[in-house]
Amino acid sequence: MIELHPVTLADKSWIDSLVLAEDSPSADYNFGNIFLWDDSFHQQVGQFEERLVVMPCYEEKPFFAWPVGSGPVAAVLERMHQHAKASGFPFVLRGVTGEHLPTVHSLWGDKCTIEDERDYWDYLYSAEKLDTLSGKKLHGKRNHINRFTAENDWRFTPLSPDDLPACQVLLDEWMALCGEDERDGIDEECAAIRRAFQYYEALRLEGGALWVEDRLTAFTIGEVISSNTFNVHFEKAYASINGAYTMVNREFVRQIRRNHPEIQWINREDDTGRPSLRQSKLSYQPDRMVEKYKVTIHE
């Protein structure tokens, strides 16, 4: 058995070190996402050799994330397999990227089922492209920016703890305006955002705030997750204000590039299969996708 325990803030340091050793652009592995979504996934964490073992449980179904870190992975995966077997649940791995599939095939071959989980693929964009919005395909985004600047007296500031009460007001109003066709998963997302507000400084998150006159119009929160990738966890705005989403996206990327010149990629996470969100993320012309797979090992 692997020694596991519920994730706490005290785990951040050692988990960060293993995540950075993996140096993956995937949004699934960083401590921020593990901790922020814990109300939904009730995650158990532990270390085996030089790798992070995470066992989430969703709708009473436990599974494992891919064990990130350094060094050989086969022995860790086998120990996870034995842990699942001893605990009486199927050995299921999720968040398995395309880069991991050759290892899966070499270890289990036809003893596993691999399912494409397209709804959870991450969208990766060039930081420079999201900064400049150059090119014919992003002409519409530049038009949104121009309209926003023409219609509003605005400013963009780094998100400070003092801004979080205003963010909470915006989040509550945004949630109230969501249509029935958009509500799937909204309660879980809002719980994660509120957790980000609560632990904003302790998690060393970074964010931005877009103001129209003195009213908070949009906010965004994220963190560095690898040597060249920044993960945008959340972004909310008043959709009734033309261009607010486009503007907060661009200005936050510009802030990221100023503060972290090494960042080449912006991970804007998945679309969870929501049509409107998928359309929005595709409209920015992603440069890469982080493919995700579910792997079930058969006895």
In short:
The protein has 299 residues and is α+β, with helices and mostly antiparallel strands. Helix content is 38%, strand content 26%.
In words, what does this structure look like?
The chain has eleven helices and 16 strands. It has helices at residues 12-22, 31-36, 38-41, 74-87, 101-108, 127-132, 139-151, 164-177, 186-198, 244-259, 275-283; strands at 5-6, 44-48, 51-55, 57-58, 61-62, 64-65, 91-97, 112-116, 122-126, 154-158, 206-212, 215-224, 229-237, 265-267, 288-290, 292-297. The strands form four sheets. Strands 10-11-12-13-14-9-15 form a seven-stranded mixed β-sheet. Strand 13, helix 10 (244-259) and strand 14 form a beta-alpha-beta unit.
The end-to-end distance, rounded to whole angstroms, is 18 Å
Q: Can you write the helix and strand succession as a string?
A: EHHHEEEEEHEHEEHHEHHEEEHEHEE
What is the approximate shape? globular
Main beta sheet strand tally, sense and closure:
7 strands, mixed
Poorly predicted residue ranges: none
Strand order of the largest sheet: 10-11-12-13-14-9-15
Number of helices: 11
What is the share of helical residues?
25-40%
| Cα radius of gyration in angstroms | 20 Å
Strand content: 25-35%
Query: What's the pLDDT, averaged over the residues?
Result: 96
Count the beta strands: 16
- Based on secondary structure, the structural category is alpha+beta
